[in-house]
Description:
The chain is α/β, with parallel strands linked by helices and 493 residues long.
Amino acid sequence: xxxxxxxxxxxxxxxxxxxxxxxxxxxxxxxxxxxxxxxxxxxxxxxxxxxxxxxxxxxxxxxxxxxxxxxxxxxxxxxxxxxxxxxxxxxxxxxxxxxxxxxxxxxxxxxxxxxxxxxxxxxxxxxxxxxxxxxxxxxxxxxxxxxxxxxxxxxxxxxxxxxxxxxxxxxxxxxxxxxxxxxxxxxxxxxxxxxxxxxxxxxxxxxxxxxxxxxxxxxxxxxxxxxxxxxxxxxxxxxxxxxxxxxxxxxxxxxxxxxxxxxxxxxxxxxxxxxxxxxxxxxxxxxxxxxxxxxxxxxxxxxxxxxxxxxxxxxxxxxxxxxxxxxxxxxxxxxxxxxxxxxxxxxxxxxxxxxxxxxxxxxxxxxxxxxxxxxxxxxxxxxxxxxxxxxxxxxxxxxxxxxxxxxxxxxxxxxxxxxxxxxxxxxxxxxxxxxxxxxxxxxxxxxxxxxxxxxxxxxxxxxxxxxxxxxxxxxxxxxxxxxxxxxxxxxxx
Length: 493
Ligand code: B12
Ligand code: SF4
């Protein structure tokens, strides 16, 4: 008899914008040959708890595996898992992904979640599933965290597995057509992840705890084969790569670009400014020919000292960012730059220098897209930023219920975090600047915003932008309510 494993993806985005649940597809891949897997996607239904309970009873499933990011996904995962645990106390609940990797203690102390797997999930997940169904000790599985007699135990991490040694994602186990999106990349867009981790250690970034500075790529050949399969089967003309850093190895990027040239697929990926600046003109030309349309990069700050304090590493620097946006103009590939603003201890000074830097970028390459985040700490040993934050009175929640509160959900969204050093006046300054710049340079990712509305927004905001007068932009906010123009599209960085 084949056992069924239930996989739950808590809601992560607004209706109609759901992406393939890659985290769960990745772990499902290593068990799909021997187990039945059922995906329950909170993005596609109103009451996932009822669905989980119904499917667990119908299939006699022993295990519910859940992926959890901070933010709205966490906010749904907590009450749903509590409800499921109350209805089916014998169903084992396992969490993996970003939030559990960082905050396993608070999860396991709550009692509604039985186990956590940290870091790269595939190999430990396979062992866990086998032992739950066929017997054997659970507590010696690498990367596992669990509570016993009130104490939380964490096993050493499993060795990383190269991506090419892992099976392909089992797309046939869900209805992929429900995830084909319509975005600025094309009207048939899917998403894929081609690598795990990142070799750097920026101290505001959650990837460090997940991957311990390792970067494991799929080969260019394998990626191109997957893209071809997606095109043959679902007729895609756009693709989002959700890797933390797609571009670490130039030869992989160049080979992949060559392999997909001529397929008519426009693509988007994430990378580092300094890495991309080090690429040759030849590689940039190949990327351009292959359909690269926009690249997301963390510019982070307009101040080199702050970049150092963020431990940005490599050859990062404001001059490198300026040089890259200039260079990308030549290839017609849009830079999408994110900034982490409002760092302690002097968030006001940090914001002012970044605002000036953004204006400089826009002068060089007006097509540059901007994503403005507010600094929120992540657990990381030796992080100067976290140390400063702690000195200023910051502490993570002590219970899961606290994490589920609206205040901490806002914190996780990195827009209005309520951190002790981030005062209302500073927040207002960032939001006002954002209102003006988003009106003066409307994002290309908002496909509904065309022609006259674009012009109206630019005219109305022009004087403010030129005079650097961002205060009280009520007229822009009113227009925002009428035409709902929006911030640049991002996948969560
Ligand atoms: C795609 C994505 C999204 C998508 C949704 C994804 C989804 N699940 O539906 C969208 C665009 C909606 C999104 C939104 C947000 N996101 Co997001 N997102 C990502 C992104 C780019 C890729 C995640 C992914 O699919 N990776 C591919 C899979 C295969 O890898 P993986 O998730 O790491 O999974 C592996 C392991 O983690 C583990 N694992 C994961 N789940 C499970 C489950 C089990 C049971 C097991 C055993 C193992 C396991 O095993 C997997 C295979 O090895 C990551 C960055 C990144 N590249 O990882 C950010 C990231 C996760 N997002 C982040 C954030 C902050 C957000 C937002 C809050 C941003 C915002 N301000 O709006 C929102 C809110 C999310 C929400 N609504 O809850 C942060 C989290 C930061 C943190 N402190 O932990 C990240 C890390 C980006 C960053 N660098 O800061 N996001
Ligand atoms: S911010 Fe980017 S470069 Fe830095 S550790 Fe995170 S993923 Fe890597």
